[in-house]
Write a structure and sequence with these properties.
Length: 1397
């Protein structure tokens, strides 16, 4: 063979004239003839083997040349033939390569065949890959539809592509380098194969699971090229290039690089690739965009695959931690995390490994404070993985824990979630204790610390047990010392110089012969014989007269030894002196080591307890923060907080139950994800007990639920019902056993505490919601145990029992069938009435709560409950009178007490005030539930019976009796919505008439107590007992619910009590009662609205809290119209009590959801808050306004407010009002339209600009507008700022231009009028408390921003709460002139609609 095949740069180069002995394609076959030529090639290949490619190269080349025009079948046939050629070469070459008799011609023939077949196969593969990709794009299936992945004939390309790669791997794995001269494979050949691989990697589906075989083949083929064919540098460059352009490749190349470094042993590839990435500057990364994300993903995944190989190259990556790309910072931190988890962990690290580990941890800690939130969040996640893998050193726990708690305050939601996850991991994997409580750890720590201190003191006080004599030590050291003496007496020249140097040093140190002797003895004790001998010789020269060194006048070994023996052992008189200066002889080593070991153990124990306490304190701090997150608006944060609460509860952390209880109300959340998270948390904690038997599981379940119920509020119990009743309705064996355990606890069969008995009965009530028979079939048991003879011993158990029985009533179960009620003679009602009546004359603090629930149950469950309660009131009154009679007082008949209140008042001083208060409480409660019974139960029953009657009549009439006329009438009524209206109105009117005329008629028992209630409420001086006053006021408010006439008659008295009572509880109760009356009789209460708002400035925090809560409900439910009095709520935004300020903030948050509500109120609020009479400080005003203006987000609202506020400058009379208006303007989120309006209103405020308090806020507006403004708008802002500054510095008269004067004259205005300034109020003026208005301040409209003038008011009678004469006490009510008049009737729903609701 006379020619050589050279791989061309491009396919078309082979048809051109080549060099000497270079192969050139002679005949390019036309497309139509290709099938014939391929058939010939196939026959030749079958008969003569793969070398036939040398003769038929032109045929396959023609397929490449006409690739775009030939049919797909032709290309597939050519590909199949080329695969056979390469496969055949791979099979035949091994025998030839090991042969020593291979001639040059044969070698050239084989080499040309290899290069030709590989070239054709790679190029044809690239062509088919391009066609496949193009076809996939054209025939891509529509979204949501299944379609073919490619065109006809291309479906098998994935498998064919895999065959191509496999045969190439087979061929290149052979040592075919010997076919080339000097075994140097040409670069074009390697490039041809590698380019084919990289072309296949560009396919977007290469990272999919279905492409894994192809992906693995490409990785192995490139691995062979890198290992055997010197493709290392090319591969590293190509990896970087492709990562920048193809987003599917990071995970592929991470896998590839790890395979190349591990399976092929090419570790240098990691260094090359990382060095390329590390050398990229921040500017390059900023330009590349998506490339940065690819690099980051690549590094993260590579670090996860081969973390140990990343350590030598980590210094290159560390530089990216200072770059601007947060994505790269995240990737480097994740790499560090993988190294710390999988390499630099455990106790077997050397000093270098520990240093690297500590350095990496320090780096991660720095980036917990990274400027980018994503980096902070990912670093927290890295730490979570480290903690979960138990790779965090113990010394780092406290430090990282503190940082994690700090990240709970992060502004980023993702960072907060990651911090919660990290803290949960800390608790779950903590190395300290399974129960974390700083309170429990305090005592053990103090005990062990005291013990450690005592051990240290004992060691100091102990004397040596055994002392070795100096003579014994001398005998032991004498042989070695003699050798040293002889060596020293024969010194060399160098040693003499050294000796002279040391002698000079010793001469400086030695003060006298005694000190020198001590020094020599110390040298001998520590085996420094040479130094001792030299010092001894020198000492004779320094102290020739000393007796210790006198024998050294002639230096011989014997004399020197005698002198040293004398110094070390000492003479009889010198021994005591020297022994004081010499170090003491050591103790027995065994005992000393034992004591040292005990001391070290104690020190470790104390340190462990200290670390545990620190960790527990940090956990408790984290719990307090995370508990507040349970009510955040972000669902994912709430879910993480719930999961955290579960974790800390499982580890019995102190105060963990607080979070578990706090999240319970979230079962009512509108967000299904939050609700499900809470339900699952409670199921996990309480409804999934552990135990060997069903009984043990039931016992555990009841114990855990009982702990949750102990001291739980009524709201908590209602929330728990929502979760627990599903379990009790399951009907499982565990559920029935749990109910059995609960009954055993309640009845006392098992010894248990009173708290757990109450919890058991409440849990039985929850079970009854799912299955009524649980309680209904055991009513007798409930009555006998809790409501029987011992009921007076535990009214709390009786109350909870009544609540449990309520769970079987229709009102709780909301059943719509025939009402379920029990007869009056039932044992339950006998027990209840007896317990209530006897409790009236007892002074039990828990009787009141029992009474309220018992009366409620009577009206819910008894037939004719009004009769029962009437007998209850009679019996209670009789018992109270009997109590008075037993006390030796004049006995009065019950009828006399019912006939008039005069007799009662006369003996009021003899009645026990607590008992009278309890009787009045029963009266009020009965009145309230009687009205509720009429409007709910009776009305509902009337509607039900009417419905049944109508249905029965319809059935009796039948379809034939319907006439056309009646059909038309019913259709008309239906269209007008009048069906059933007349009947319902009749029923409603009946109920209203009963309430108005019958409930308080003279023959009704309730009416007998009303004068007494009025008397007690209006005579606080005579009836001053707190409990009596409280009960009377509450009962009177409940009586007022009966009818409008009773309400109107007593409304003035109620507001008198509200404003003038000295008891905060009475004022708070009055607010709640008046709120209920406002809902029931809005027209009667509307004129008194101002008095309700006045309680927002009450001195007692609990009253203010109640007032803001009630008014929030009334306003948000549209019962009260939102008026200017809302400014009183705004003042509470700065209340010193955090809970009250949060309620006020919640009020405005909810109000902001109503269209334009806050926008409409703002001008009036500003007027009221900046009123000089209020005396509010400017700081408080700014704080309130900043919050309120945050709700103004619409441009149109901003523009309108700018104009309104500017107009207010005209009517404002004081500098303080000007400043407040200017501050309000600066708080608006100003837009271009608002700024234009501000310029148009220049005349309103220009004359006030000399005041700094006006100028500075307006100047701040220009600073805000200038940020990010367009050049044209920015110029307008700058011009306006110059104008502001000029007027501020020189005054308005000196700045206005003639053109502006003309414009003002044309507009009819004049700017020459002097500015009249009203002086500020005196600084010594008395300010109202907390800057809040007094109740007497009258409201003003939007346009009355003028300082109010004093007006003459009618003199009000002076009211005092003292025990005056009886005739004067009637005046302890507001005068008629003080009673507000009805100004605006409030529209309300019809009586029928209210009854229906």
């Amino acid at each position: 063979m006379s020619w050589d095949f050279f791989l061309p740069v491009s396919v078309g180069d082979l048809v051109k004239t080549g060099g000497i002995n270079q192969y050139v394609v002679q005949d390019v076959v036309p497309p139509k003839q290709l099938p014939t030529y391929l058939s010939r090639f196939k026959a030749a290949l079958r008969s003569h083997g793969p070398l036939r490619i040398l003769e038929h190269f032109d045929t396959c080349y023609s397929v490449l040349q006409h690739c775009n025009s030939v049919e797909l079948a032709v290309k597939e046939d050519a590909l199949e033939l080329l695969i056979q050629v390469v496969s055949g070469l791979a099979a035949s070459l091994p025998a030839l390569l090991v042969s020593t008799s291979l001639s040059g011609a044969e070698r050239k023939e084989k080499l040309n065949a290899v290069k030709m077949s590989v070239f054709l196969l790679c190029k044809l593969t690239e062509s088919l890959e391009s066609d496949s990709y193009r076809q996939n794009i054209v025939t891509a299936p529509a979204k949501g539809k299944k379609g073919k992945a490619g065109g006809d004939g291309m479906l098998q390309w994935d498998s064919e592509r895999e065959k191509v790669l496999q045969v190439l791997v087979q061929l290149l794995q052979l040592d075919i380098r010997s076919l080339w001269s000097l075994s140097l494979v040409e670069e074009e050949f390697i490039s041809c194969v590698s380019c084919c691989c990289y072309k296949l990697l560009e396919n977007p589906t290469i990272s999919h699971v279905k492409s894994k075989p192809t992906r693995d083949c490409i990785i192995h083929l490139l691995g062979v090229l890198i290992k055997k064919y010197n493709h290392l540098l090319g591969a590293s460059v190509k990896v970087i290039q492709l990562l920048q352009h193809f987003e599917q490749l990071p995970s592929v190349f991470a896998q590839a690089v790890s395979v190349w470094s591990t399976e092929y042993g090419v570790r240098a590839i990691i260094g090359e690739v990382i060095r390329e990435i590390g050398q990229k500057s921040s500017e390059e990364l900023a330009r590349e965009g998506s490339g940065v994300k690819a690099f980051a993903t690549f590094l993260s995944e590579l670090g996860a695959l081969v973390p140990e190989s990343m350590i030598p190259n980590i210094s290159v990556l560390i530089t990216h931690l200072e770059s601007e790309s947060h994505t790269m910072r995240v990737a480097v931190c994740e790499v560090l995390g993988e190294i710390l988890v999988r390499v630099l962990c455990g106790d077997g690290l050397d000093e270098s490994g520990k240093a690297d580990r500590d350095r990496f941890f320090d780096t991660l800690q720095e980036h917990l404070h990274d400027t980018h939130s994503h980096v902070r969040a990912r670093v927290l996640q890295v730490y979570t993985r480290i903690v979960n893998s138990k790779a965090l050193p113990l010394c780092k726990y406290s430090e990282v824990m503190e940082l994690a708690v700090g990240r709970l305050m992060d502004k980023s939601i993702n960072a907060v979630k990651s911090a919660i996850q990290l803290l949960a991991a800390f608790i779950a994997h903590n190395p300290y204790s399974c129960k974390l409580s700083s309170a429990d750890l305090k005592k053990p720590l103090e005990k062990e610390t005291t013990k450690l201190r005592e051990m240290k003191d004992n060691l100091k006080e102990k004397t040596p047990v055994t002392v070795i004599k100096a003579s014994e030590l001398w005998a032991a050291m004498e042989p070695e010392l003699l050798v040293a003496v002889r060596n020293e007496l024969e010194p060399t020249h160098e040693e003499e110089q050294e000796e002279n140097t040391e002698d000079r040093e010793e001469e400086k140190e030695a003060e006298d012969d005694r000190a020198t002797a001590v020094k020599i003895a110390q040298y001998l004790r520590v085996n420094k014989y040479r130094n001792a001998v030299r010092l001894c010789i020198r000492a004779h020269k320094c102290f020739p007269e000393s007796e210790r060194f006198a024998s050294l006048s002639t230096v011989t070994p014997e004399n020197l030894m005698d002198t040293l023996a004398l110094i070390f052992k000492g003479s009889d008189e010198d021994t005591p002196e020297l022994s004081q200066d010499l170090p003491s002889t050591p103790q027995k080593e065994g005992e000393k080591e034992g004591e040292d070991g005990e001391l070290k153990k104690q020190e470790m124990l104390v340190q462990y307890l200290k670390d545990t306490e620190t960790f527990a304190l940090q956990v408790e701090r984290a719990i307090s923060v995370i508990n507040t997150m349970l009510y955040w608006k972000t669902t994912s944060v709430v879910q993480e907080a719930v999961q955290f609460c579960v974790t800390v509860c499982e580890f019995s952390v102190a105060n963990s139950i607080i979070g578990v209880r706090k999240m319970l109300p979230l079962v009512w959340s509108a967000d299904a994800a939050i609700k499900d998270a809470v339900v699952q948390a409670y199921r996990h904690l309480y409804l999934n007990p552990q135990g060997d038997t069903i009984r043990a599981k039931a016992q555990t379940l009841v114990d855990s639920l009982s702990e949750l119920m102990v001291d739980a509020s009524l709201g908590t119990i209602q929330c728990l019902e929502e979760i627990v009743q599903e379990f009790f309705g399951s009907g499982s064996n565990l559920q029935s056993t749990a109910i059995q355990v609960l009954w055993e606890r309640f009845t006392g069969k098992r010894e248990t505490s009173a708290l757990h008995r109450r919890a058991a009965v409440l849990l039985l009530g929850m079970a009854a919601r799912a299955e009524r028979e649980v309680v209904l079939s055991n009513l007798d048991t409930l009555c006998s145990v809790a409501l029987g003879e011992k009921v007076t011993e535990d009214f709390l158990l009786a109350r909870d029992t009544v609540i449990t029985i309520c769970s079987i009533t229709d009102h709780v179960r909301q059943s719509k069938g025939t009402p379920f009620r029990l007869p009056q003679e039932h044992q339950l009602f006998t027990c209840l009435t007896q317990a209530l009546a006897e409790g009236v004359v007892m002074e039990d603090p828990h009787w009141q709560s029992f009474m309220e629930q018992a009366v409620r149950l009577i009206y819910f469950l008894a037939e004719s409950p009004d009769q029962l309660c009437s007998r209850l009131l009679q019996r209670s009154s009789r018992l109270l009178l009997d109590q008075i009679a037993e006390g030796g007082e004049i006995n009065k008949d019950v009828s006399q007490m019912q006939d008039g209140s005069q007799e009662s008042s006369e003996q009021g001083e003899q009645v026990n005030c607590v008992c009278l208060a309890q009787l009045l409480a029963v009266c009020g409660c009965v009145a309230f539930w009687q009205v509720s019974h009429l409007e709910r139960s009776v009305s509902t029953e009337l509607r039900r019976r009417r419905g049944e009657t109508e249905e029965r009549e319809e059935k009796e009439k039948g379809p034939a009796s319907k006439t056309k006329q009646s059909a038309n009438e019913s259709a008309m009524e239906e269209e007008l919505g009048l069906i059933g209206a007349s009947a319902e109105d009749t029923e409603a009117e009946l109920i209203r008439k009963i309430c108005e005329t019958e409930l308080l008629a003279d023959e009704n028992l309730l009416s007998s107590f009303l004068p007494l209630l009025q008397r007690v409420c209006s005579s606080p001086g005579r009836y001053s007992h707190p409990q009596l006053t409280t009960a009377a006021c509450l009962a009177l408010s409940q009586y007022m619910m009966i009818s409008p006439s009773v309400c109107e008659e007593n409304i003035r008295l109620m507001f008198t009590v509200l404003e003038r009572s000295t008891l905060p509880v009475v004022r708070a109760n009055s607010i709640i009662a008046l709120g209920d009356l406002t809902v029931r009789f809005p027209n009667i209460l509307e004129p008194w609205t101002q008095n309700l708002y006045a309680r927002l400035s009450d001195e007692v925090p609990s009253v203010r809290q109640t007032a803001v809560t009630v008014l929030t409900q009334l306003v948000l439910k549209d019962v009260l119209k939102v008026k200017g009095q809302v400014s009183e709520v705004a003042v509470l935004l700065i209340d010193p009590e955090p809970h009250i300020s949060s309620l006020a903030l919640n009020f405005f948050n909810e109000l902001a959801t109503k269209d334009n509500a806050i926008y409409n109120l703002l001008p009036d609020i500003i007027s009221r808050l900046s009123d000089p009479e209020r005396g509010m400080s400017s700081e408080d005003f700014n704080t309130i306004m900043k919050q309120l203006f945050s709700y103004i987000t619409k441009e149109r609202q901003t523009e309108s407010l700018v104009e309104k506020l500017c107009q207010r400058f005209r009517t404002a009379k004081t500098e303080r009002q000007w400043c407040d208006l200017a501050v309000s303007l600066s708080l608006l989120s100003m837009c271009e339209r608002g700024f234009k309006r501000l310029q148009e209103c220049w005349e309103c405020y220009s004359d006030k600009l000399t005041e700094p308090g006006v100028y500075q806020p307006l100047l701040s507006i220009t600073a805000k507008l200038r940020r990010g403004a367009k050049p044209q708008f920015k110029a307008q802002v700058d011009e306006f700022e110059k104008r502001l500054t000029a007027v501020h510095t020189r005054g308005l008269e000196n700045v206005e231009s003639p053109e502006m004067d003309e414009e003002n004259q044309t507009g009819g205005g004049s700017t020459e009028k002097p500015v009249v300034q009203t002086p500020l109020p005196s600084r010594g003026r008395q300010k109202s408390r907390r800057g809040q208005a007094k109740p007497s301040v009258s409201s003003r409209g939007d346009e009355s921003f003028v300082t109010p003038q004093k007006t003459r008011k009618s003199k009000k009678p002076v009211i005092t709460f003292s025990s005056d004469e009886e005739e004067d006490e009637e005046d302890a009510v507001m005068a008629e002139s003080e009673t507000p008049k009805v100004t605006t009737p409030i529209a309300r729903t019809s009586r029928r609609a209210r009854l229906r609701n």
